[in-house]
Design brief:
alpha+beta; 4-stranded antiparallel β-sheet; 8 helices; 9 strands; 59% helix; rod-shaped
Length: 384
């Protein structure tokens, strides 16, 4: 019986502790998780909208920059013509003027045979005698009338890209090399955070501007960004380096993709630090709540158990008292029932003694025995 009662109180303690902890801790954990999730969601939405605006702005700047370089060459081509520009001195004078306004490193006039007729720039010894007639860019500019290349090393073994304009009759080409460092700087201004990056990549996944950390190729995971979409797209990708937000938009007549990369983990580091502090506080608070719940429940249940034991003891005493009272009542009844006939016997014995005393002792045989018998009857009546 005692074992069952002990198990009952232990089970009561466990149930009360569990209920107390559920009531105290579950709302705390739910509130913490909800606040954390909402903050991260709100933060990412703000970052996404900021990235989208920045990418749209950089897109306009880059397209304007490329269009401006082509416009310079087109204006020069239409304004001066082949006969004037093929003269070295004339081209040098024009180059000195446009170099102040455009990001042009060198400029050259190329005939329909693919050879330079005039060139101004630091790479004359390398490029002047080269024949571009079989180059893809030369063929394209002769067909389309204008051309902007991808970034490549070329004969000078330096990253650069070219802008070329063909005369209306396709008899000659005005070609210029664009300063890739200046172009890179236009893209790098879109970098966000310490581990963020911004670069331009072509449709094959080759970077056209240097990545912040020396990368020149997209990772296999990042190659999923190479799909056509209108406007600016913001999406999150899981890569080997962690989770990143990518904002992408197409530039240069949909030949290049401007990519702005944002490291969410790095930029959320203060939040995660605060989250760890919050987790530690919740953990310590939970330990305090658990300890307090266990102590309070043990105290209360022990009090209840003690009260139940006292109640059981009082109940046992009451039962014993009731038993004793019943026995007393029974004894009183029995005594009453016995005393009545004894009183009659005692009365009759006294009456017999009185009668015997009135008789003559000499006339009654066995007088002494009668008298002795009456005394014994009265003695045993008193005893009973």
């Amino acid at each position: 019986m005692k074992k069952k009662q002990h198990e009952y109180y232990n089970r009561l303690k466990r149930n009360l502790v569990v209920i107390t902890l559920l009531v105290a801790l579950v709302p705390l954990f739910v509130l913490s998780w909800t606040a954390s999730s909402n903050y991260q969601k709100y933060y990412k939405e703000n970052i996404s909208s900021g990235m989208q605006r920045m990418v749209e702005n950089r897109k306009d700047v880059i397209n304007f920059f490329l269009a401006e370089q082509s416009s310079f060459l087109s204006i020069i081509s239409n304004l001066y013509g082949f006969q004037y520009l093929k003269e070295q001195n004339n081209l040098e004078g024009i180059f000195r003027v446009i170099q102040k306004k455009a990001a042009i490193v060198d400029i050259g006039v190329i005939g329909e045979d693919g050879k330079h007729t005039a060139y101004v720039g630091p790479y004359r010894d390398i490029v002047f005698d080269k024949n571009y007639h079989e180059e893809d860019w030369f063929k394209q500019v002769m067909v389309k009338g204008n051309y902007i290349s991808d970034v490549f090393l070329g004969y000078r073994n330096m990253p650069h890209f070219i802008v070329a304009i063909a005369a209306p009759q396709r008899k000659w080409i005005l070609r210029a090399t664009i300063d890739s460092e200046m172009f890179d700087s236009l893209v790098k201004t879109a970098q966000i955070g310490e581990k963020g990056d911004a670069f331009i990549v072509n449709g094959k996944g080759v970077l056209q501007t240097a990545g912040r950390f020396g990368t020149y190729q997209l990772s296999p995971d990042e190659r999923r960004l190479l799909y056509y979409h209108q406007g600016t797209k913001v999406e999150e990708l899981e890569t080997k380096g962690g989770k990143f937000l990518y904002a992408t938009t197409w530039v240069k007549d949909n030949e290049w993709i401007l990519v702005v990369k944002f490291n969410t983990k790095s930029e959320l580091a203060p939040f995660f630090k605060a989250k760890r502090t919050e987790t530690l506080i919740i953990f310590i608070g939970s330990l305090i709540i658990i300890t307090a719940a266990v102590l309070i429940v043990n105290f209360l249940v022990n009090k209840i158990e003690k009260a139940d034991r006292l109640k059981a003891a009082y109940n046992d005493q009451m039962v014993h008292t009731e038993k004793m009272a019943a026995i007393g009542r029974l004894a009183a009844g029995v005594a009453h029932e016995v005393n009545n006939p004894l009183a009659v016997i005692n009365e009759k014995a006294g009456w017999m003694q009185d009668l015997l005393s009135e008789e003559d002792k000499d006339k009654i045989r066995n007088y002494s025995e009668y008298e002795d018998a009456i005394k014994k009857i009265k003695l045993h009546v008193d005893r009973a």
